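Box 3.1. Reading complex inputs
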Amino acid sequence: MIDAFLDLASATTLFNVLWATLAGIVIGALPGLTATMGLALMTSLTYAMAGQQAILVLICLYIGSIYGGSRSAILLNIPGTPANAATALDGHPMAQAGMGHRALGLATVASLTGGLIGGVALALIAPLLAELALGFGSTEYFLLGIVGIVVAGRMTAADDPLKGWIAGFLGLAIATVGQETMHAYPRFSYGNLDLTAGIALIPAMVGAFGISELLMSLGSGKARMVDAPMQATPLLSNFRDMIRRKVTVIRSSFIGIAIGVIPGVGEDVAAWISYGAARRASKTPDEFTKGSDDGLIAAETANSAALPSAIIPALTLAVPGSAPAAVLLAAMFIHNVRPGPMIMIENPDFVAAVCWMVIFGTIVMAVMGLALSRPLLLVLKVPREFLTPVIFCLCLLGPYALTQRIFDIYVVLAFGLLGLAMRLMRYPMAPLILGIILGGMVDQNLRRMLQLIDRDPTQVFTRPIALVLVAVCLAAIFAGVRRRPRNVQVKRQQARNQ
Amino acid sequence: MVSELSGRRLHVADLATGSVLILLGAAMFVASLAMPTYADRGTVLTAPAIFPGFIAIILFALGALLTARTLRQPAPHPTGDGLAWRPVLTGLALMTIAIVLVGHIDFQLLIAGFCVAFAAFFVSWRGARAEIIRKAGAMAIVILVVAVLIPMTFQHVFLIRLP
């Protein structure tokens, strides 16, 4: 860890951490620009940078944007990223009551705490998971992919898991397009060279998250910032409030870390689960959604703790823990870093460097969030109609820059349409993207597994890790098939409408 | 205000999606049957059709489940869910036209044209003269950024040949 720190500590690193975190905060704060989209666009801009610095920029942007989303959630009641939806429930009522400054301060300190605890978890869990993954064979990798889709589908579409599973398996279906790796047979290409190369991840993500978000925001009317005067709150009082709510902080951090590690689930689910847990544990549950400190802290701590945790499976299994982590994973491949179980053997310094990147980014995020509290409010005043053409131009040029194929621009449009339709019909986007990412791995390992077990399915049950994965998969399906209590559905719907 | 579909619209959309998934699953399965098995290379267990066939069956089953579930529920009464389709469809049309024209006309000209068209549809040009001048100035800056600065950065800094 010390070697990695010394290797990373330079003026270039400091410069990159500063601008990338600030850019992330701005991107996150702007409704219509999500962390995933920001990362997807930035991947093309960091193409020419040195590998480690490029990953540093992306991680800092990721941290900044998840935090930045809390500002619009608190002041506009519009979550800047899906991860901040639970933040708006208590943050916005606080702002309306004239405690906007305190809400921003609490969100910043909660994000700092969650991010640092998550960073430590990354340093501790990643080597252990990598070691465990060394025992994975084709059976385990195949099952891991299927478990990822089933669990992500279940958790990102809690009200209707069937739609989450449809999105995930649709993603796997999309991944079948193009040349397969075992016999180099072009599937569903119909003689088209572009289709033979397959559907690239970045254009698909820019379309699904970027274009569809732009289109949705065009019809969502103008957001209005709270006009209640903001009373300044001393910085130390935010820390004191956090210490007073240490149980909520610790619980939310653990929830964030646990949810972050699950493939494809991500920060938004972590924030919701943590919020629900805080409400259940609270002695004053009626205060929730009316400006509760516990609610705000639970949501922000969990989403920030889930962020480094989502990088753990991306690094050690090459399976992303969230949609932005999926872009990060793609960027690692672009910059010749090979994530997977061998990373601790081939490139252990890189894992340690990633931990430091998370810690640097989190600290700079908190400093900037507290120091630039008022200037950052200006970002929220940028009219959407002036911002849309800029984002649209980046959505076209970003994915094109990676491969210089016009076909990728058409992929952006196609996935923009698919994303819009899915959003309108209440399908989650994360399992779709996870399916596209995991498709190759699931395909290859399914066929290898079939060859190894040679028509004897009982062999799967002789492998303990495979048994655990089958049990998790069945539990997720069973939990999804069971009807959810109606009051939970109503609460979620109410929260979504807010 | 654009929101997710609800009520009767969602019911119809679910029914349509279920049917599309059934058709997609069936078509994918038939297409995978037509793929080579490469049995001459030792085993059919690594055939390229195995994975798409597996996914096709699951998609078919999920589509059938969605359709059956939707049919079992009574169709809700139509409600006005206040979807603002006009701005979404206008934006979609503008983006589609711009993307279809990429590669056929100069990129910078195309993107400047997109900005002008976007401003015509989405920026309110009513109000006091000073306000209109302020908006026009802001839009001119946006056009400068989008049609000149961003493409030039990609072209000269990242050495990307514009489409």
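In summary: The beta strands of chain A are 178-179, 186-187.
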